[in-house]
Amino acid sequence: MRAEAPVLIVGAGVAGLATALAAAPRPVRLLCRAHDGCGSASALAQGGIAAAVDAADGPAAHAHDTLVAGAHHNDEAAVRCLTDEAPRTVAWLAAQGVAFDRDADGRLQLGREGGHGAARIVHAGGDGTGAALMQALRAQAQRATHIQWRGGVDVDALRWRDGHVVGLLTRDERGRGETHDAAHVVLATGGIGSLFGRTSNPPGADGAGLALGLAAGAAARDLEFMQFHPTALDLPGRQNLPLITEALRGAGARLHDVHGHPLMKDLHPLGDLAPRDVVARRVWQACREGGAWLDATAVTDWPQRFPGVLAACLAHGIDPRTGSIPVTPAAHFHMGGLATGLDGDTGIPGLHAVGEVACNGVHGANRLASNSLLEGVACGRRLGTRLATLAGPLRGQGTARWIERGPALDAGTLAALRQLLWTAAGPRRDATTLRDALRTCAAWHGWQARLGEAVLLAALRRTDSLGAHWRRDATVAA
Ligand code: SIN
Predict the structure, then answer these.
(1) Cα-to-chain-centroid distance, residue 399
(2) Measured between alpha carbons, how far is 295 from 293 in angstroms, rounded to an integer?
(3) CA of 458 to the centre of ligand 1 (A)
(4) pLDDT tens-digit readout, 211-245
(5) pTM for the predicted model, two decimal places
(6) Whether the CB of 369 sits within 6 Å of ligand 1
(7) CATH code for the structural domain at 230-331
(8) Is 276 a catalytic residue?
């Protein structure tokens, strides 16, 4: 008897791991680029997980803040589902071994971030929430007998037969190919931050999964909505930048310009905790006028609450306890992606997507702070539970064919594409720059350029400003 083909999950961030764990007892093969399963954006997430766990708070208030941040471009039913699920998600993570930060009475400590009307950010290891989640979920997945790991591989192509995705082709660092049969394929490959000149994402967030899904004919949604975090550490000449968590502003840190003037004064009722897009545009402007800094010298308990930021700053000769931190906006989170429902269905039989590569409408035009780990875990568990029993493709008679992402850009052209997207599709956009960038991009041959074109085209077509998509030539003011 032939062994049952596994569910293949591409990507081992929180979304991929939660999907894999919830799919038990169905056999799962986890495919990831790093040998140790590290390297995902999840591990870098600092703020935490938004969840209405306080008695004075509630999922309806969390949903309200999510919709306001998302400029009501969100799918409201999906938002309500996610915010209802948030306290249960935190409880599940605690049961998986995540040691959330608690006060002396054992109650969860709650941080505050931009756009939230209440302190509702659950965190672990101070600003190390993503790493703490990854450590706990990876340990569970390594113990789970239904999960097989395959590290050090890239996915090059999807296998297609009789109208279904039925497998994929991986390639290791030495160029050796391997074909894998699948009952289902899940893309959990993260976002596209690394296609931009400055990003808080790791190098692997390059859109490879999104490009593969599009090549298979899956629909894209909301590609123009890229979130720029207002405060990455400004390291000249570097692309991948350490994040300076927004939770610092929740703890009293304030932004200022080259003259020491407060950046957010009189700009928004929430001041330094205004929605991320508003702060990012202000910081972008200040960077063009001499620079932007975060004064966090009033923050106390650095080693407990912000050990990651402290270490990153000290590593670059900046002591945030005594001086201001130079900051820049950076591409942080893609609200757009492969169009799915909350259950990860792409509409292509056998192909699913979850986490940042997917767009289920929950984040609208601008994701609320600390809703991304929440979405990855909650939607991963939902998809995994469904896949545990979902029938795979019937034994096919038709001829199989490969759907490829296509050749990659050479290093020089990729660097030029990153600069192009940063300038044309960054926090401030206009039709002329977008059109010029599209023309430049069209002349480049490589899948990253096709993805860049799709983002630029979506940004050009949305002529008004909405959420993180800001057109300085907008016909309707934001
Ligand atoms: C942050 O810690 O500032 C980022 C958290 C998030 O992306 O939601």
Answers:
(1) 36
(2) 6
(3) 25
(4) 999 999 999 999 999 999 999 999 999 999 999 99
(5) 0.95
(6) yes
(7) 3.90.700.10
(8) yes
